[in-house]
Amino acid sequence: MNKPVPPPRLRMALIGCGQIADAHLQEAAKVDSVEVVAVCDMHMDLAKQAAARFRVPGIYDNLDRMLAEAKPDVVHITTPAHTHGPLTMKALAAGCHVYVEKPFTLDAIEAETVIAAAESAEKKLCIGHDQLFDPTWLDCRSRIAAGQIGHVRHIESTLGYPISGQFGAVVAGDPRHWVRQLPGGLFQNTISHPLYRILDLLPDLHPRVEARWDRTKYDFPTELWVQLRGAEITGSLTFSSSVYAQRVTRVYGDQGMLEVDFDAQTIRRHTAPKLPGAFGRLEMPFRQWREGARNLQRNLWRFLKCEIHYFSGMRNLMAEFYRSIQQDTEQPITNAEMLRVTRIMDEIFADCRSREERVEEFVPETRELEVVR
Q: Facing residues of 100 across strands?
């Protein structure tokens, strides 16, 4: 019996050879359906270095020439956020499917334009919401579906992002840095991940949004708090530059809670004790010990199989996206979901600016105190 012939690999090109580009090229090499044919950056040195590291044959500093000569099927856009929309439009016009890093576009209006162009060209889009495909998050979703915490009622997502890190220090030290020129500033380039983890479980198209940001020791906002309220589920997002680096999401149900730590690659379940009184104080530490042992066993097994990687979710998302192109099936993240996340980000930043303006406009009345002798 003849074995089925696999479909030909899709030709991938990448534009923007900064730090995140390495992750795309590294994970693409692990996906059988991908053949990386070219990289492009306006700084030729960066393109040459990326090509050398990942053995990419095509090296360009001009996007039009790369599209014309390399003839990619799919273009990955890993450039600064404000360029995502225009570059995606150019790639679509050249007949390419597009995988674009987060954030999708600068705002919802631009997102609608890009999506309309993709649908008109009958091309697929993918946004870099890769943590939805991280093995630990997939495990969380599986446990929720199995009813381990009952009905989901609240999602709490935290991102610790110390400005002292290499990228943060560059942003903080340059008032003209492109990140600080975005409508949402630092947050627009970073909160997609904790936000879409909430929205993955909060299905409302237009949840109520309340948000505020604050400055600490910097002259631009570095702290953000967001509350989302849907018909049945609520969410809270915290971005802080004052705490240690962390990526944690807690999903609260009416029968328990699941805590997902993306950095530790662990998932812990919390439920009320079954034993009464003091016995419950023994039961809960035992449960936590047992949960820790399971996490250790799972991660040790993944380590031995070389499956613990920071960007495991990216590889899974990439494989699903390329499969959807080859088989002409629904893309792993729908256009409607990309637009929903973008719209809610717009609302978050608009509410933050509005609150900040109200505070600045408020001038408290001052009165001279009379000294009574």
A: 77, 127
